Write a sequence for this structure.
């Protein structure tokens, strides 16, 4: 977060600790990340991944299986720009999750794509721990970020370096219309990560961050902030 | 005409046999007839007549646009195909092929049997051919056009072409008229006139339209060589094995190396490959691979081919393999970046090849864009091997991130029929609308849609837990296009 953005100023005035704890979603480099959907038919996952895709002219390989297309619909091109995504999407639409994994592995070996996104619905058998481990190693070897969107899966075993769970929150206030939903707001939970501490944040897409490395803003939730070292006991007490 | 027949037969839109069909081109005074069908010929319609005149006489005339460029392209291809009979063939004008069969006829059992063979094989292609054999090129073209089926030897050329009209020489209209005015209607008459008198009249004409020169060429008094184009090069690597084997995979490297060497010599890259195995029992099997960008990188070709080998039936083994580049494109040598980075677009093309070879070319696509307001029409797909990525258009209104195809019907409870939904039930779950935005009305596109298509009123709806959906109502109450309006979910917002 750039320190002079209005949000950052507000946070740094109120509490310095909060600012330190807010991670950049891309900080981990090119690794495999799982993104789980908190509920069915939730667009938050797609929005989150799109906001995190690198700002590059190279195409993004977007692989999806038939079940995820049927359950959640196809990615709709005209709205990609709203999430600051300027590149092109190379779609691979296969029917079986096995082919999704294969195509993702092929894509990870290609230096010409900026990122690979795979979508698999449910927890099919081929998406085993070994399969995710293969993908994770491949991503780190080739330095291509890999995102695996798993809808309808409640946390099966995975070797992903970071595992997120996304669900929608009631949107922000619309600037002109009280009745209308405003800018989207998501709850992002990092429940497993290597080399950083997990936590839960309120995430939103930041349209003002043009040209930044990532276009996502994570804010600690007001009610239950991340457990700091000096703060842990208090939170426990508060929790009862 | 035959080419048109083949195309329409493919489309199954051929009119009946008794309907006269003509193909037209644009003439100086409106469209003129270029070619005609048998039914039209039976009704004495002549090529070159104006379409409006003929239509007045035959009101049931079926008129189609001719495609001379396509005809020429087809003739060029057919001329190359005709090299199965003799080594020198060339397209002759707009409607003929000249073949130099000197020393080739005996291979087919004589000239008459060769003509029969040619006619049969053209008929198998769905083409009618009018054939003639003559010792000179000029005589052969005249005989083929004016008295088909004639075979004349060197001694009776003059006899054979004597009864033909002077127009057979393919001279200009006004020259034909001039000769006819002089009373020289047939070539026989032209041959009998003393040369000196005619030479004085025609000595200033260019050789291609000069009747005397053309006649001399036809009679063999003047040389008329055939300038046949060269055969297209074939890119083929062949590998003979000392004894039959079952598995082609180990031999691919050698084949691909050989082929890529040939391609590199000519600075070409392959776009389409075919691997053929010739089995010991006389059968053969082949596999095709298409590439997104031309390539002559042996390792890449081997990798693509290897994925295709599954299911190729080797029988009792095979002892000959060929790897052929069916389509090639010029591919100059090119240099990678000086700092050792690879060219990213080349990597993507190689990735496309691998994905298409395994998953099928229709599964990998870029987006194409159509100017439309109907959400599901804006974005189309083009196979990644065939097209490239195009810039997305700017859509001013907010659109969902995911689109359901087709839209799914929902049961809706609303306060007023023209208002937003208060509750809706989708996929067996009930949702309570908390906030909504809309309606955004999208009218049917009358130039594309069927008549009676209803308009759509779109609402962006947020439910209790924050999920945002895109609903639309099809039609409004009392628009006279069906019963009560129905509701659909079409998209999911982030």
């Amino acid at each position: 977060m750039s320190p002079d953005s209005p949000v950052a100023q507000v946070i740094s005035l109120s509490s310095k600790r909060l600012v330190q704890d807010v991670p950049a979603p891309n900080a981990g480099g090119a690794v495999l990340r799982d993104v789980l959907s908190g509920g069915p038919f939730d667009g938050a996952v797609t929005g989150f991944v799109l906001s995190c895709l690198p700002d590059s002219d190279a195409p993004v390989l977007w692989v999806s299986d038939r079940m995820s297309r049927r359950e959640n619909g196809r990615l709709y091109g005209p709205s990609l720009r709203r999430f600051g995504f300027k590149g092109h999407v190379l779609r691979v639409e296969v029917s079986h999750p096995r082919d999704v994994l294969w195509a993702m592995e092929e894509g990870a070996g290609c230096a010409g794509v900026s990122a690979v996104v795979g979508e698999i619905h449910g927890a099919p058998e081929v998406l085993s721990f070994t399969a995710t481990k293969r993908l994770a190693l491949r991503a780190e070897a080739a330095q291509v970020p890999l995102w695996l969107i798993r809808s309808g899966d409640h946390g099966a075993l995975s070797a992903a370096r970071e595992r997120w769970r996304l669900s929608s929150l009631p949107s922000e206030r619309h600037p002109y219309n009280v009745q209308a939903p405003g800018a989207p707001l998501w709850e992002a939970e990092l429940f497993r990560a290597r080399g950083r501490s997990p936590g839960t944040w309120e995430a939103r897409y930041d349209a003002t961050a043009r040209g930044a490395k990532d276009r996502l803003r994570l804010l600690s939730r007001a009610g239950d902030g991340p457990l700091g070292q000096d703060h842990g006991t208090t939170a426990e007490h508060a929790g009862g | 005409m035959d080419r048109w027949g083949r195309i329409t037969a493919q489309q199954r839109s051929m009119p009946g046999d008794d309907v006269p069909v003509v193909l037209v081109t644009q003439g100086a005074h409106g469209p003129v007839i270029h070619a005609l069908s048998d039914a039209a010929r039976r009704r004495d319609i002549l090529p070159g007549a104006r379409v409006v005149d003929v239509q007045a006489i035959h009101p049931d005339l079926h008129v189609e646009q001719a495609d001379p460029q396509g005809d020429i392209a087809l003739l060029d291809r057919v001329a190359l195909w005709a090299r199965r009979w003799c080594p020198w063939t060339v397209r002759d004008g707009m409607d003929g092929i000249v073949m130099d069969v000197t020393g080739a006829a005996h291979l087919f059992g004589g000239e008459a049997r060769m003509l029969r063979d040619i006619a049969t094989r053209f008929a198998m292609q769905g083409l009618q051919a009018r054939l003639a054999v003559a010792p000179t090129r000029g005589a052969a073209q005249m005989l083929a056009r004016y008295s088909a089926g004639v075979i004349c030897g060197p001694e009776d050329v003059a006899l054979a072409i004597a009864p033909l009209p002077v127009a057979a020489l393919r001279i200009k209209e006004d020259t034909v008229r001039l000769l006819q005015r002089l009373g020289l209607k047939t070539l026989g008459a032209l041959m009998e006139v003393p040369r000196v008198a005619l030479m004085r009249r025609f000595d200033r004409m260019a050789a291609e339209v000069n009747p005397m020169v053309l006649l001399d060429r036809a009679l063999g008094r003047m040389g008329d060589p055939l300038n046949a184009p060269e055969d297209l090069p074939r890119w083929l690597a062949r590998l003979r094995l000392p004894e039959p084997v079952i598995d082609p995979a180990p031999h691919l490297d050698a084949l691909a190396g050989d082929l890529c060497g040939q391609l590199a010599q000519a600075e070409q890259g392959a776009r389409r490959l075919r691997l053929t195995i010739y089995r010991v029992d006389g059968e053969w099997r082949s596999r095709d691979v298409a590439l997104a960008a031309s390539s002559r990188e042996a390792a890449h070709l081997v990798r693509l081919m290897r994925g295709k080998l599954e299911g190729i039936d080797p029988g009792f083994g095979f002892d000959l393999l060929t790897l052929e580049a069916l389509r090639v494109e010029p591919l100059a040598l090119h240099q990678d970046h000086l700092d050792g980075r690879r060219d990213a677009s080349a990597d993507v093309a190689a990735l496309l090849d691998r994905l298409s070879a395994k998953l099928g070319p229709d599964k990998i696509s870029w987006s194409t864009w159509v100017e439309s307001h109907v959400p599901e029409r804006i974005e189309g797909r083009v196979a990644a091997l065939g097209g490239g990525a195009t810039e997305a258009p700017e859509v001013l209104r907010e659109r969902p991130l995911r689109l359901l195809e087709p839209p799914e019907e929902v049961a809706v409870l609303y306060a007023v029929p023209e208002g937003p939904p208060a509750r809706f039930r989708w996929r067996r779950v009930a949702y309570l609308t908390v906030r909504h935005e809309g309606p955004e009305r999208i009218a049917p596109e009358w130039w594309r849609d069927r008549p009676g298509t209803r308009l759509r009123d779109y609402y962006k709806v947020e439910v209790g837990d924050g999920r945002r959906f895109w609903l639309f109502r099809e039609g409004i109450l009392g628009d006279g296009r069906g019963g009560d309006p129905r509701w659909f979910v079409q998209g999911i917002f982030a």
Summary: Chain B has 15 helices and 17 strands. Residues 364-396 of chain B form one domain. Residues 211 and 340 of chain B are 68 Å apart (CA to CA). The longest strand of chain B covers residues 429-442.
